[in-house]
Input
Amino acid sequence: MATAIPCWWKSPDSYPLLVEWTPARIRLLRAAGLCLSQNEFATALGFTKRTIGNAERSVHPPSLALRRALDQALEKASDAQRDRFLAALGAAQTATQMMPASRDRGHHLAPTLDGLRGVMLGWPHMTLRRDMGEKSAPETTVMAAIAEVHRRYQLADYDSAAQLLPAVLIRLHDQSGARDGNDECRVGTLTSRHRTAAAYIAAAKLATKLGDSGLAWVAADRARTAASESGHVALGGVATYQVACALLRAGDLAHAERTAAIGIEDIAGAAAAPHPVRYRDEVLSVHGSLLLLLAIMAARRGDCKTAQVALGKAGRLAEGLGRDGNWLWTAFGPTNVAIHQLSVHTSLGRVEQAMQLGATVNTEVLSPVLRGRRSRVHLDLSWAAAHEADDALAVLHLLAAERVAEQAVSRNASAKELLSTLLKRERRGATPGLRGLAARAGLLQ
Output
């Protein structure tokens, strides 16, 4: 858990405000800059968690006292904290500039992959180009926007990520087409192929989460091709991970498991070679993530032994990393291993063990951006409860997942499958909240 910072706000002394504090900027200062939870941030500023939550959601405009407290927080922040805030702010502004114009910008967007599908499959997109403007964005701007898509995905803000990604891919294609294709790959240097792989990895993750296995497979395959051409082994491992996830979503467990096993073989050799620390951590994290995916797939076919062996290997890699990280968007570390152990128990039908482990997993140690990963604990516990026909408990965990991340249930194809099951055997009065969840997921007419 992040260490709480001192309470900087003392009294509303009169001085000019440094920043015009919008809800988005307040969230970025707290989560991206200072890496604090809402509760920690509220304590540091001397306000209530409810006040901070309302300010971040734009329920009430921030008071003058709160705005001055935010100014002082920014003034007292370390250089590293301030740099993180400014980088996140720049990425968010870039994303907004690259977002296609919409008459409906102020309304909640319905989840859709139409824009992403259209760009990837070559449908005409001149309207999108006109809305964006024809001027090409700098390479650094495109990479910042790609990072923003990944951030939104990990925040479980799938609608927003799906809206931004098509424009990012068009910019990326425009830039790639202007090159002769002779980029050199050097550790620490981003080439067009690195950017292409990173963008299509985001596309594959999003399509898998929203349940379009065909689109996910196409995106993952393009990511793997670009990563292979770049020579970046760790990025190739992430792309291979997404190919396996797409196959798994399509119901092809055998080929998904084989793909993950090949990815593990490929990256194991790279992990043994000497690398700079950052690259070593990336390779280690991707290696561990592939092992965790293999454990899940083994559990789904009832192979407890293989699942436990893979979990054990991943656990040792997490110990070697020594912390919960997020290299190449893997969120790999000891906590993620524990979350996957819970998933394995659930897949094997070990409900009691799943419930016991679920009560001990502390997701608060994860980075604030990993809301989607935090919600996974409740989603797994919901599946476990449903397996025991305890539908009331299953609904409670789904509601808890939704509180962690608003779109964690309504946009998640797996969670919607569970909701459909619960609806089929619904007993009115025994599962309050179920119909509201189903309505938000678009499952009720």
Q: What stands out?
A: Confidence is low (pLDDT under 50) at residues 1-17, 99-111, 129-137, 180-189.
